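Hi there,

I know you've been waiting on this one. I reran it after we fixed the sequence typo, so this is the corrected version. Both the input and the resulting structure follow.
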Amino acid sequence: MSQENLVRELGISFATVNRWQNDQVKPSKLAKVQFGNFCARMIRQEKLKLSGGDK
């Protein structure tokens, strides 16, 4: 997923994600919840898989 699609899904700006990636700011509690909900939805839709250290 592109950053553009991610920011659209989360309702935040591209600059905000860029600042998170560059450790200029930390995501707010609300942003963390929104991102967690987004990831959970993507997992349910089988669009995201988490790698687990399965051996």
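Quick highlight: The two ends are 27 Å apart (CA to CA).

Best,
R. S.
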